[in-house]
Amino acid sequence: KKGEKQEVNYHFQLLEVTIGPADAGYVEVKLPASLNLATAKVVTRGAYDLISKMKNSEEE
Prior knowledge:
By secondary structure, the chain is an alpha+beta fold. The chain has one helix and two strands; from the N terminus they run E-E-H. It has one helix at about 45-60; strands at about 20-25, 25-30. The radius of gyration is 16 Å and the shape is extended.
């Protein structure tokens, strides 16, 4: 219905990344080769909050 919010469920997965060189406030992040970049969505902001919520829900 118009004006109603639909509940959306996202599924996140922690992946190990490799950190590359840093320059001018930017850091290179090397993602796993197995990650399909065409379909993957990567969290770049708010990751700390997301990790906290994920760990909280594991404890429940």
